[in-house]
Design brief:
322 residues; UDP-galactose 4-epimerase, domain 1; binds NADP nicotinamide-adenine-dinucleotide phosphate; binds ligand G4F
Length: 322
């Protein structure tokens, strides 16, 4: 039985990846940081099937301890300060966790158990002000936020440890992926939750930022399978993962509101407070390498994804007000 450590197991992707690995028969160890309240909402249904250990990407000795204790076959580094706007308010923290945290983890693996296979959660935000359309593994990076800059560092340190120390270390360059477990601050969930609140009479408007920016949105449950596949190959390589289709935030609003019989024009208010100092206007992937070499395909399309998120939020809120 293989042992996998997931950092960021309490996050959206961590919870889906844990389910995916448990279904494949792995021993799953989740690293969580200490907090004053429990953050296990997304994993409470599988808590009895996994091992939880405390550790923090800020703290080298906690990472050494985790690797020494479990000597894992695979490590999936999903932990990060992952919200782009926060990276302008907390640029140093973002760099410490999202960039240097990766070096700390790679060092722990290199020194203690170099045969461990390592997955780094890289991001399409690294393409930023895109140099070509669509974006593939060979597209140059031009990050537009402290988060994007931190992810570029994390990407290259992963490549560097692979080339310097012969580690099986790979980087998955994932485009936006969403689900009913997405944090409430990200635009898809902000909209699905906002639509549900308006439909149930709990809110009158939804305040958003730039409606014209375009993203390649897929379903998180599909994307974690690609992470696993990247660690099962003969040689370590990086992959772009996305749907190859792009939509605007405005289209997302139209779809989500019309799903419950409403017109978004009656409720969406554009609020400059949600504009970013520098925007990523357009992201769209070329996932052909993953389709060919990983035999990976997204199963859930954009419309099904947004309907699923709105339906889940309606269900959850209806239970709360019952
Ligand atoms: P998420 O829901 O924000 O989860 C982030 C996780 O990191 C949480 O479990 C969080 O723990 C943990 N964490 C934060 N700081 C930490 C620290 N100092 N030490 C240890 N753990 C820490 O993010 P996600 O959407 O699942 O994304 C997973 C990863 O993929 C992230 O690295 C993200 O940047 C990257 N990514 C995401 C997407 C996407 O569209 N979702 C696309 C490309 C790349 P708490 O629960 O305690 O906060
Ligand atoms: O949902 P978002 O906050 O996601 P963003 O910035 O693309 O980042 C997410 O995807 C990355 C992969 O590309 C990950 F690496 C990262 O960790 C994160 O998961 O914003 C999407 C777009 C932006 O252009 C933003 O300006 O939606 C636009 N937007 C418009 N109004 C808004 C809002 N975004 C948010 N969060 N809130 C708004 O009110």
């Amino acid at each position: 039985m293989s042992t996998a450590i997931i950092t960021g197991i309490t996050g959206q992707d961590g919870s889906y990846l844990a389910e995916c690995l448990l279904a494949k028969g792995y021993d799953v160890v989740g690293m969580v940081r200490r907090s004053s309240t429990v953050t296990f909402q997304r994993i409470k249904h599988i808590q009895d099937d996994i091992t939880i250990i405390q550790g923090d990407l800020h703290d080298q000795s906690s990472l050494v301890d985790v690797i020494e204790r479990y000597r894992p076959d695979e490590v999936y580094n999903l932990a990060a300060q992952s919200f782009v706007p926060t990276s302008w308010n907390q640029p140093v923290l973002t760099g410490e966790v999202t960039a240097l945290g990766v070096t700390r983890l790679l060092e722990a693996i290199r020194l203690i158990n170099p045969q461990t296979r390592f997955y780094q959660a890289s991001s399409s935000e690294m393409f930023g002000k895109v140099r070509e359309v669509p974006q593939s593994e060979s597209t140059p990076f031009y990050p537009r936020s402290p988060y994007g800059v931190a992810k570029v560092y994390a990407h290259w340190i992963t490549v560097n440890y692979r080339e310097s120390y012969d580690l099986y270390a790979v980087s998955g360059i994932l485009f936006n992926h969403e689900s009913p477990r997405r944090g409430l601050e990200f635009v898809t969930r902000k909209i699905s939750y906002g639509v549900a609140r308006i439909k149930l009479g709990l809110s009158k408007e939804l305040r958003l930022g730039n409606l014209e920016s375009r993203r390649d949105w897929g379903f998180a449950g599909d994307y974690v399978e690609a992470m696993r596949l990247m660690l099962q190959r003969g040689a370590p390589e990086d992959f772009v993962i996305g749907t190859g289709v792009t939509h605007s935030v405005r289209e997302l609003c139209e779809l989500a509101f019309s799903h419950v019989g409403l017109d978004y024009n009656d409720f969406v208010v554009q609020d400059p407070n949600f504009y970013r100092p520098a925007e990523v206007d357009l992201l769209v992937s070329d996932p052909s390498k993953a389709v060919k070499d990983l035999e990976w395909q997204p199963k859930i399309g954009f419309e099904e994804l947004i309907h699923m998120m709105v339906d889940e939020d309606l269900k959850r809120l209806a239970l709360e007000i019952d």
